[in-house]
Amino acid sequence: MKEVIDFVVKGIIKNKYILLAPLAIILLIASMMMINSTQTGTTQKELQDTFNDRKETVNLLISKILNKKRNIGLSEDAQQGLDSLLSQEEYLKQISSKLDEGVLDISFENIEYIKEYEAYEEYISIPYNNKDILNIEQQKVETLAKHNLSYTEQQTPYKTALFTKQLFQLFFSPITAFLFLLIFSYKYLSDRENRTFDFFKVNSLSNTAIYYGYLIPFLLLVLVYIFIASFFSLLPTLVTGNLNTIHYPIEMAVQSETMMVPVWKWLLFLPIGWGIFVSLLLVLSICLFKQRISFGVLLSMVAIPLVIGYIISTQFGFYMVNPIHLIVSYETHLLPTHRFMIYQLWMFIVLIIFLAASYPVFNSKGSAFKAPVLNSTRKQYHPKSKWKLLQFEHVKKKRKSHVLFTLILLFGIIGGTYTFVNQQYQNLPKTSLKVIEDLQNIIIEQLRHWKVVELEFDIETEIMLSTSQEESDEEMTEFIPVENPYTVRIENLEQGYTALEGLKKEVGSRHFPGKFREAMNTLHSSDDLPPSRWNVTDLATAEQQRIMDEKDITPWPIGNQWISNYNVPSTAIDNEHYNLLKASQERNTKYGKSGLFSVYKYFNWNMMLLVLGVFVLLLWTSISEEQRPNSSMNFLTTKPISLRSIYVSKWAYNGMIAYGLLLLSGGTVFLLSLLIGGFGEPQYPILVYAAENTKDDLFYSGVENAYFFFESLLVLILKCGALIMAQIFFLNSLFSLIGRWLKNHYATVIVTLLVGFAGYFLANQYISVNNMFLNPFVYFDTWNIVDGWKSIAANSSKVNFINGCIILLVSGFLLFFMGLLSGRKRV
């Protein structure tokens, strides 16, 4: 075994590319430090805004209470409340002064401010802080004070342990684990192809010694990578003397409760968990390689248990025996408690068991040392009677592993989309809790306003009452007290706050979505506005709810409103309007985990643009490849094949492989989504915009002068699929034509991508130009074409799905025939 280990280690050390890994780590850290250092100040600005708002509120309350004191006097409790407000004002002034100077060490002042606020609540009933959020803030600031820490930048840190945590989440991620598996597989397969195993066999080394000899160096390499990545990630924190920031508390929502988790738990869990996970992958992989399987089969057999583990985690929650929690779904289940230590210890024991179980596999004879099939002895190409050129193109790409690599990449793109969608669904409790707290903050702000108004009314009433009593002594008149008209409004707001507080306890339960939507509909009803003043969002929300009730469709869990594109944050007229629209959009973001919902999000994000780019970059072939001598050229020159035939065959091959892979990968991921979240609601009503009134059953909003109607989700998805087929057809013809004109394949790829990106950019930039609907690149914005928004942007009903398909297909045929008819040269 020692001989094999020495051989493999020397091969790794002598490889000139081995130094690229630490260099890449250093460059990434340096780049992130530069980027973060230029974007710092977010936390400071948030704190400034928070405490400036509190100071403004305290000043307002002080002025109102002083006014009351001057006019009608104060009770003992009210006076004590005023004294507390004056103390709060002093602490807020100190905090604001520090923040203005860039000093974030405000723990002492903040703790004292919170204590004064708690005392204030006992005297005067005008709340202006969300007590739950204030309790969370108190926990955080007490932790900071305990460890002698100040507030620090959380979104873009660059010299604290939060920066190290950010780097750890990059270096110890599922992506780097997959790259490690690829490196290991490449080394193993290349050595097997070079008959290295036969060399060891000749030197009387046992199977066990050889396979453990290959495995152990890579396990050591995992440890070395963890050490290097950890060291360089911790270096900025160590150099700046901020190592104590490992105790910095980070808020984490666990169901309906927010807990404080110190940074050091991530720094401890991530490298250890990642190392155990990669080691398990390597042990499983080398056991499979021992069975002489191909790399594609290996990836499938490794992916299946991972997918099963992920499905179990999403469907049934956390299980101590599930290794998938080493890299995903670990935060809320493990970090808030010390259970992660027990879990990692158990996973390490599982790794030891795997290593022991691999012994009989390595020791078995089997066909492990069968002479590898070299390229020279591969099965020769024997074309069938039909489609010979297509078969030839397929063999060329297959032997270059382009098909396998592109399939993996395509699965990664679509599977990543699904995983992101599903993770967002898994984060619903956290999202819901944030939505509820934001709404409570709005209610508290409204309560503060109306209670101040109520106080002013009471002051005026008391003054009028005292004046009336003075007059009554002279004229014997009686003053009739007037009931405060703001009391009912305040009571309704308090009831809404209480309802939201009760809703928090339901977060994560099976009945929560229904209760959440009911509460949101109650709080955000448009009944106080006449229908003539309803915008598209109001009209669409009401109509969508009617359709769902009529067809008994289960709504998506979060969002009681369908936020139209007229109300997205990018349409804001000022910063305040932007914050309002952004908060509304976040409260009504759509979530789900069904197959149809995942496909909806895939199209909504327009991921197909990236997929088509992958096709052009890696998979498609062009006639440019045959313009210079190579193995293909030598084969083709012996055959009486015209350039036109080669052109057609390559065009047909590109289309077939694109449609085939797209259907295969998309279908597989859809089936996976089907297993996890079900089929979904095919009749779910989706808003579709219309540039003008083209039929009688359109809805109309006079506020935004907009027409719209509803179409089922399944119909829109099918339309997206048809439009994508037309996009591939057009792009394939464009690629083939450029390949016909250019002599270098790589130039063909680059020019095609540049033309595609430039066309897409210009089509969107000048969408309102006359006859722009004839531009095929307009229709690459898939979902916005299907849902009609592109017609609104272009202010033309001619920009639609039907015209898009026709124009893409006609343009594709024209480009194809241009390449087909240009020249009759034979190869």
TrEMBL record:
What phylogenetic lineage does the species belong to? Bacteria, Bacillati, Bacillota, Bacilli, Bacillales
Alphabetized, the UniProt keywords read:
Membrane, Transmembrane, Transmembrane helix
**Where is the chain membrane-spanning?**
17-35, 167-189, 210-235, 266-289, 296-321, 341-362, 403-421, 602-623, 651-676, 706-734, 746-767, 801-821
Protein's name according to its UniProt entry? ABC-2 family transporter protein
Organism of this sequence: Filibacter tadaridae
PANTHER family in the record: INTEGRAL MEMBRANE PROTEIN-RELATED, MEMBRANE PROTEIN
